[in-house]
């Protein structure tokens, strides 16, 4: 059906599945909303979805997949890769970095090689975690590796470190998209949720910095300048870096700060009227940023 919304719910636990069905039954029906409750693991559920007459993955329609497993098992990276191969797909993954870290530390007792190879899609975790003894360090390395793995599939990915009211680490969320607008909108949504006070969102790449705080600008500006040191890059390159690696949704504030402190020079022959500390968006090519060495 043209314009139909396909909602797939996969649940392994029978009691939770019964509760899910009860809630769906209480919702009013709509001819344009197709609902597919599936009892089974994520792996088996995806197999069942592919067999549906109206398989939503057979088209180029926009797809949002929230993958929220109970624990670190049962979410093969191969299936994440399959989802992100769809042109219009975005994924939000609950990455149980703490659980993965504990499996790694348990070693053979937890069958760690099989489980971690499945979670990351290969053995890249071995080199990443080699010699790591402390769990907090392992957690950060795990979530950063997962993000890098997502970036091999799509151009935009970011990880959010979720903390409770008391500031204690809770879990990580990883978001991946084919388009910069997807990540921009996800960051905006996270910022709105953060303002409710229910959680704070920490940047998983810069520990201890609370997400969306404007006073982190010097930290991220310095990070950006060190990353591009000595290079001449386009606006798009700096903008993509800001989107993927900083709290900001674009590079404007970071570049304005760096220009004020003399760490970049800007070449913009197409914009002779450009004012210092201002930057046109990516629809206006021809601007290059020169970072000092």
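Q: What amino acid sequence fits the structure above?
A:
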């Amino acid at each position: 059906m043209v314009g139909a919304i396909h909602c797939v719910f996969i649940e392994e636990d029978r009691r939770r599945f019964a509760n899910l069905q009860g809630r769906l039954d209480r919702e009013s029906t709509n001819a344009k909303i197709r609902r597919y409750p599936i009892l089974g693991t994520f792996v088996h559920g995806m197999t069942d979805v592919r067999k549906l007459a109206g398989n939503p993955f057979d088209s180029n329609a926009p797809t949002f997949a929230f993958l929220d497993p109970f624990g670190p098992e049962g979410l093969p990276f191969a299936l994440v890769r399959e989802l992100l191969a769809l042109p219009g797909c975005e994924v939000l993954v609950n990455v149980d970095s703490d659980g993965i870290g504990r499996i790694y530390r348990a070693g053979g007792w937890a069958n760690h090689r099989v489980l971690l190879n499945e979670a990351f899609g290969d053995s890249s975790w071995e080199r990443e975690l080699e010699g790591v003894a402390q769990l907090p360090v392992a957690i950060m390395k795990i979530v950063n590796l997962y993000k890098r793995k997502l970036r091999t599939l799509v151009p935009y990915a970011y990880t959010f470190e979720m903390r409770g009211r008391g500031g204690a680490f809770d879990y990580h969320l990883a978001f991946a998209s084919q388009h910069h607008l997807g990540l921009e909108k996800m960051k905006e949504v996270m910022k709105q949720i953060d303002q409710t006070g229910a959680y704070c969102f920490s940047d998983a790449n810069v520990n201890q910095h609370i997400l969306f705080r404007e006073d982190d600008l010097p930290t991220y500006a310095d990070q950006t300048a060190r990353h591009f040191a000595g290079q001449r890059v386009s606006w798009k390159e700096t903008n993509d870096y800001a989107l993927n690696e900083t709290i900001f949704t674009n590079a404007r504030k970071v570049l304005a700060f760096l220009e004020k402190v003399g760490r970049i020079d800007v070449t913009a022959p197409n914009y002779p009227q450009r004012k210092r500390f201002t930057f046109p968006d990516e629809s206006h090519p021809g601007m290059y940023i020169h970072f000092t060495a």
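Q: And what stands out in the fold?
A: The chain has two domains: 60-212, 215-291.
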